[in-house]
Specification:
globular, 6 strands, alpha+beta, 60s Ribosomal Protein L30, Chain: A, six-stranded mixed sheet
Length: 130
């Protein structure tokens, strides 16, 4: 039986609750929800969904690297979107980062997110590079 390894890299935003950013079992990786904040300050990268989505995906790339993975090994993405009217812009930025393959994805419209000003969060499932 494989052990669960939890990871919160020092070069990633600090979680706002009692959780780790990554849980890894063998080659299987799950991430917690992540907003578009700068790792060093935990301030929002911007006030628009495109800027926030870009920062989320940069942060996800950092998280995956800490677990011996990358965006090329993403299997599924959950997107929690505050305003469905931002869907097209989120999609445009998402396609910039996940362009070589199209992982399964779920987009859910939500009424509220935990950090004020956050327009979306994402979580993902991935596998290691091996």
């Amino acid at each position: 039986m494989s052990d669960v390894v939890t990871i919160t890299p020092t070069n990633a935003p600090t979680p706002i609750g009692p959780y780790s950013h990554i849980a890894k079992v063998g080659t299987f990786i799950k991430s917690g929800g992540l907003a578009g904040t700068f790792p060093s300050t935990v301030e929002l990268a911007g006030r628009d969904v495109g800027t926030q989505a870009r920062q989320v995906l940069k942060n996800m790339s950092t998280l995956l690297a800490s677990a011996d993975s990358d965006l090329e090994h993403v299997v599924h993405v959950n997107v929690f979107l505050l305003h469905m009217s931002d869907f097209e812009e989120m999609n445009r930025v998402y396609a910039e980062y996940l362009c070589s393959h199209r992982p399964a994805r779920t987009v859910i419209g939500v009424r509220e997110l935990p950090k004020p000003g956050v327009l979306l969060t994402m979580s993902l499932t991935a596998v290691t590079r091996q």
